[in-house]
Amino acid sequence: MGQQIINLGTTANDGTGTKARAGGDMINDNFTELYSQFGITPPNPQTGTTYTLQLSDMGKLLTFDNASSITVTLPQNSDVAFPAGFTFAVVGIGVGAVTITADGAATINGDVGVTLDGRWVGATFIQTDTMDSWAAFGRFA
């Protein structure tokens, strides 16, 4: 897709320009293309107490906001075929502790899971070339 230009019309409110809804759609499309070009994706906000990582989370920031403890599951590669180098980031913005748990054969830093060390603490996870091994960088409890 190339840049989409909104027609402003000849004069204000003369009805000759792009309609508001169509113009808004053009703006959204333009920003989506820009974000994808620079590797910027909008956050994936989660408010529940459980979440399972998905292929669509690649490169995203996952935010977790709940007063109760939250469990994030990293499925083993035989269940979800994450490519080597798959990266995502997490941050706990609520008061509930965020624990990231590896499922099945998967491991995080050679262990079964990690817990973020408090509110407003983040971490980045990268799947290594061994497919069920994840490296995690952040502040853990």
Overall description:
The protein is of the alpha/beta class and 141 residues long. The protein has two domains: 1-40, no CATH class; 44-138, Sandwich (Jelly Rolls), CATH 2.60.120. Helix content is 13%, strand content 31%. The chain is built from one helix and ten strands. The protein has one helix at residues 20-37, and strands spanning 44-46, 50-52, 61-64, 70-74, 87-92, 98-102, 107-108, 113-115, 121-127, 133-138. β9 and β10 (133-138) form a beta hairpin. The longest helix is centred in the first third of the chain and has 18 residues, at 20-37. It is elongated, with a radius of gyration of 20 Å. The termini are far apart.
Task: Name its key features.
single chain, 141 residues, alpha/beta, Jelly Rolls, 2 domains, elongated
Percent helix:
10-25%
Biggest β-sheet: strands ordered side by side in the sheet: 1-3-5-9-10-7
Structural class of the secondary structure composition? alpha/beta
- CATH architecture type of the largest domain: Sandwich
Q: How many individual helices?
A: 1
Order of helices and strands: HEEEEEEEEEE
What is the residue-averaged pLDDT? 88
Globally, the shape reads elongated
Number of domains: 2
Please outline what is shown here.
This protein has one helix at about 20-35; strands at about 45, 50, 60-65, 70-75, 85-90, 100, 105-110, 115, 120-125, 135-140. By secondary structure, it is α/β, with parallel strands linked by helices. The chain has two domains: about 1-40, no CATH class; about 45-140, Jelly Rolls, CATH 2.60.120.640.
